[in-house]
Amino acid sequence: MNTKKISYLGLMIALAFVLSYVEFLLPLNIGIPGAKIGLANLVIVVALYTFSAKTALALSVVRVILVGFTFGNLSMMMYSMAGAALSFAVMVLAKKLNRLSVTGVSVLGGVFHNVGQILVAILVLETGSIIYYLPFLVIVGTISGVVIGIVAAMITKRVRMGVD
Amino acid sequence: MKKNDIYLICIILIAAVGLVIFMRIWQRTNDSDSARAVVTIDGQEYGTYPLNKNITEKITQENGEYNLLQIRDGYVEVLEASCRDKICVNHKHIHYQGETIVCLPNKVVVEIVGGEENDIDGATH
Question: What pLDDT, in 10s, does the model give residues A75-122?
């Protein structure tokens, strides 16, 4: 790990942290609990394409812990950790398959972030009825995934030049 | 964006919309399943009949009094009764939650429980 990579990773964690804060300030109020834009996923996707999966995973975990302790509480951290883990696993798989571009991978990430959160919520609250929110969360995740994917593709092109 | 991405997005959106429609239908059928007519005689529960089955039930009591209850197409009415005034027989059929048919001489009350709300008339309970 050279100095350049370290500074890039520090920058990315800071970015993910700030994006989470922005999202925290602007809650998406459309009547669906748990619906989020997932702005921080932008940084994770960029890291996944610019650096390695391992680096992106570390970034994701650090982000969840930092944000959880700063803005949320332990239960919120649990939800976002489950969402982040599932979303990350699916994104790495999708990237390995090499059939999708950044946008598709990001869409899958956004959708499975919500799926993971719902699954944990079902386990914690011990009620299956919140599964009714799932299709709406999937739609929100898809839309935000498309936007983030397009932005991530643009960033990846430019950041990669800086790293090499 | 590749072609595969667009396929993926389309599949996800179609699956989500399909899931919504499926849940709506499932919810609806379950709702009509839970709608039922509860018959009480003198405060004692006599029986419960689901509204989605067409049946004709004769509610007889030990003293020989009876009311003939019919459920058809989700509507409940009393066809015949042994009472004097026949108010329950002349009562219009009931369907919405909270609606009742009362036969005072026989102390029979038929009430709809768990059905759909009547959105035309308000009701106070």
Answer: 888 888 888 999 999 999 999 988 888 899 999 999 998 888 888 888
Residues of B in contact with A111 (CB under 8 A): 12
How many domains does chain A contain in total?
Answer: 1
Average pLDDT for B3-27: 87
Cα–Cα distance list, A115 to A22, A46, A87, A134, B7 (Å) = 22, 22, 8, 7, 20
What percent of chain A stands above pLDDT 90?
18
Smallest Cα distance from A142 to chain B, Å: 7
Q: Indicate yes or no: CB of A111 within 8 angstroms of CB of B20.
A: no
Write out the H or E segment, with its range, that includes residue A111. helix A102-125
* Domain ranges, residue A16: 3-163
> Three-class SS of residue A12?
helix
Contact B1 A132 (CB under 8 A): no
Q: Given CB atoms, is B10 within the 8 Å cutoff of chain A?
A: no
Cα–Cα distance for residue pair A147/A32, rounded to 1 Å: 20
CATH class of residue range B36-113? mainly beta
CATH code at position A116: 1.10.1760.20
Measured in angstroms, the CA of B55 and the nearest CA of chain A are apart by: 33
The CA distance from B26 to B11, in Å, is: 22
Contact A111 B19 (CB under 8 A): no
Distance between CA A118 and CA A109 in Å, rounded? 14
Judge whether B74 and B35 are in contact, CB under 8 Å. Answer: yes
Q: Which of A93, A101, A140, A143 to mutate to test the interface with B (most CBs of B within 10 A)?
A: A101
Residue A34: predicted pLDDT: 62
Q: Give the nearest partner residue to A142 out of B1, B4, B13, using CB atoms.
A: B13
